[in-house]
Amino acid sequence: MGDTINGRPRYLACERKWVYALLIMAAGMMGAYTHNLRGGVFCNAQTGNIVLMSIALGNGQWRHAVYFFIPVTAYIMGAVVSEIMPHPARRLGFLRWDTYLVGFEMVVLFAMGFIPLSAPHQIVQVTFNFIASMQYNTFRQAEGIPMATTFCTNHVRQIGLAFTKAVREKDRGAFKKLLTHVVMILFFIAGGASLTFLCRYFAEKTIWLAVIPMGVVFVRLVCADIFQEHGDLDRKPAGH
């Protein structure tokens, strides 16, 4: 099958906007979970950890500064693993790496719900660093639009760029991109808000809420890999 249909781009299931919306919703839940229940930090990106590391170094808190190498290293390793794994996944010829990753994330999130809040928060924090990095590095473009599925900074920036282009050049395509990025942020907020509300009732098990959007994505990707897109397992998603 070609990469176009009637002259229009043909996107894989793993590149669909609604898939990205559900993934970023789950990411919003993960961020709210670690902030509300697991140490008051956000584990979806590493800018905060590097800032805290620099502050610790500036204050001469050497041991505290060294600690931040752990989550940063976990994030680096997540990127490394997500670069290595697509090749053996293609050799298996069953599912795409993207699908395996979503399934793996579901298992990890479910397992984290069994770790009591009395356990060291670093266990969950570092685990989330690892899987968030893999997700960020694997899902890169939604229907041709560069995206991040674990944090919102890029979406905020892209809204500004798209708004400028839409107004200056009367570009309808730019306006559509603007709306896409707005929707992604709204899904992130919805995920974070819903988990924050429910964590007062379900404590550490609240993270299981994130398995729901992940599960919807996983079922759709499995069906695509086995039925509609099995002949495209060697095809790389855009941005790779």
Mean pLDDT across all amino acids: 94
Find the structural class using helix and strand composition: mainly alpha
Secondary structure: helix percent = 55-70%
Q: What is the 3D shape? A: globular
Strand % is under 5%
Per DSSP E runs of 2 or more residues, the count of β-strands stands at 4
Account of the 3D structure:
- This protein has helices spanning 17-37, 47-58, 62-67, 69-84, 86-92, 97-112, 121-138, 153-169, 172-202, 211-228, and strands at residues 4-5, 8-9, 141-142, 145-146.
- With 240 residues, the protein is mostly helical.
- Strand 1 and strand 2 form a beta hairpin.
- The relative contact order is 0.20.
- The protein has one domain (18-227).
- Helices cover 68% and strands 3% of the residues.
- It has ten helices and four strands.
- The protein has a two-stranded antiparallel sheet. Strands 3-4 form a two-stranded antiparallel ribbon.
Write the topology of this structure.
Layout: E1 4-5, E2 8-9, H1 17-37, H2 47-58, H3 62-67, H4 69-84, H5 86-92, H6 97-112, H7 121-138, E3 141-142, E4 145-146, H8 153-169, H9 172-202, H10 211-228
Antiparallel strand pairs: 1-2, 3-4
Keywords:
3% strand, 240 residues
What's this, in brief?
This protein is mainly alpha-helical and 240 residues long. The chain has one domain.
